[in-house]
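Task card 7
Instruction: Convert sequence to structure tokens.
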Amino acid sequence: MTSKIYRIGVVGASSLAGKELSEELAESPLAASNITLLEDEDDTAGNLAATGDEISFIQKLDETSFEGMDFVFFTSDAEGTTKHWEEARQAGAGIVDMTYALEGQKDVPVVSPWISEALGRQGRIGAELHLETQAVIPAHPVVVMLGVVAARIHTQIALETVAATVMEPASEHGRAAMDEMHQQTVSLLSFQDLPKEQYDAQVAFNLLPALGPTAKVDLRSTEERIRRQYKALSNGSLPKLSLQLVQAPVFHGYAASVYVQTKGAVSVRRMEAALAGEHVDIVTDESDAPSNLTAAGQEEIMVRVESASDGEETGNSFWLWLAVDNLKLAAIHAIACAGELGRLRPSGKVQ
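Output:
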């Protein structure tokens, strides 16, 4: 998106995703825009928040909040999006739903310009979005991570299998989930009872493929969303994704172990060459392996490639180890999705 002066609203500005988005907007082609931080909660409205080098007040949402807005990002939770998105639409704003509340709504597509570009179908997003499109849902960070990597390989080396075990961080489910993981860690070390309102299970010092029956964090729904979005965005161009989502005892950042099979034998270097490009950082054996820590603050998907063919340099099966900053990737990707909407909309209303 070329640099224009837009009026942008960030709903849920005090959330983890909202804070990250506000910071990334200040570094994006939209940095010259007028950005308004919004909240529906009285206890956060009026607080100070940073947008790049600027300090702004978080404003309380009211019936006039969306007037004159070009874009509104919903970043907090599905309930807040469901409550207010019609107001934003009626005000004529382009809507970017980072909460997935609008998934399934008519004329609200799930999009990923990054996956479309990796598949060599830059025009596909344009085909999905038309002049009447007013709202989009950026694909889930795991879908973006796996989709870009699979597409980058498959356009050069035919893939037969993509199977991933993905480690879910607490921050993907907001501050309450992070706080509970922290409290569980403290409680375990001090031999106290564990709080389990969010997870209904012990997640500290533990790996879980499923959570308790009363958990507020819905791991199964997230896994289903990833499969559904990957299938829709690959549109038959990529192999079916075999996926297991595991709740990991980490606060931040996705890590994933991905097994891929190719139709013909290739070398590790050939795989690395296929993966190289925008949004991907190839990490060789000479550097520290990708991890939640090394990915923190990084804009790219970190990937290490190893042969799975009994240590042979050349073969048709490989292990990929991926790591990504989940909040940063989601924010940057959401801005890219807004850019697609922006190409269909007139210049900003602030002149």
